Amino acid sequence: MADIKAGAKGLHIGFIMDGNGRWAQRRGLPRTAGHTKGAQVFQDMVKYCKQLGVEAVTFYAFSTENWKRPKAEVDAIMRLLKEYLNRAFDYKKEDNRIVILGDKTPLSDEIKKLMAEIEEGTRNNTGMTINVAINYGGREEITHAARELARRAARGEIQPEEIDEEMLSSCLYTAGQKDPDFILRPSGEKRLSNFLLWQSAYAEFIYMDVLWPDFTRKDLDKAIEEFLSRNRRFGGI
Fold first, then answer.
1. Residue 18: which residues within 8 A CB-CB, separation 6 or more?
2. Within a domain: residue 165?
3. How many domains does the chain fold into?
4. Does the pLDDT of residue 102 top 90, yes or no?
5. Catalytically annotated residues
6. Crossing angle for the helix pair 71-87 and 31-52, nearest 10 degrees?
C-alpha cells in the first residue's frame, strides 16, 4: 500500500465507468439497478483516490451519445446525478473542487442550478479536483473551443496565426488542469469512446476485464501498479 500511495500521489486519473447495464442484465435486473450500483462504486473511488493523494479524477458519467438510450435509463442517470450533486454540498469538509465537463444546455434547470452552485462553492478549494463529465463528448469539446477562438478572431482580439495548442487548451472544459496520466476503462472494452480526446494525447491506457459495478479498490491498485510499470517517453527515447 505504501508503494501504491507514493505512486498515486499527484496523479490525474480518467475513469470510463462502463458496464453498468451488462452487470444488471447478467443478474436479471433492470439496467437502472446497474447505474445505482455503479454510482456507489463512483463514490467509493472518489474517497479512495482522495486517501491515496491523487490530484485529480475525471469520471465519464454521461456522454453526448447516451441520450439515445431508453428514457427510463436516462431519467435514472439524471436522478443519480442530482443525488450526487446534493450530496456534494459536503465539500466544505472534504475540500474537494468539483468541475462539470460538458455542454449543460440540454440539462434540466434544477440540475444546471445545482451544478452552478457546487462549482462556484468549491472553486477555491485546494483538495482533490473531481471532474464529472456530463453530456460530454471529446469532439464536441474541441469544436466548442474552436468556435470560441473563431469568435475572438472575428472580434479582432486575436489573429488566426496566434492560435496554438496552449490557447486552444485554455478554451477546453479542463482549462488550467493537467492532462490525465492514465485513463482506465473496465468492462473489457478497448476504446476511448470520445473521452478526453485532446487531453489524452500522451496518457497511458489501461483496460480491465471487470464491469464497473464490480470494480474495487484492489482493482484500482492493480491499475496504478500497471501504470507505474510503464516507460513513458513522450516521443523521446
1. 185, 186, 187, 189, 193, 211, 212
2. no
3. 1
4. yes
5. 18, 66
6. 30
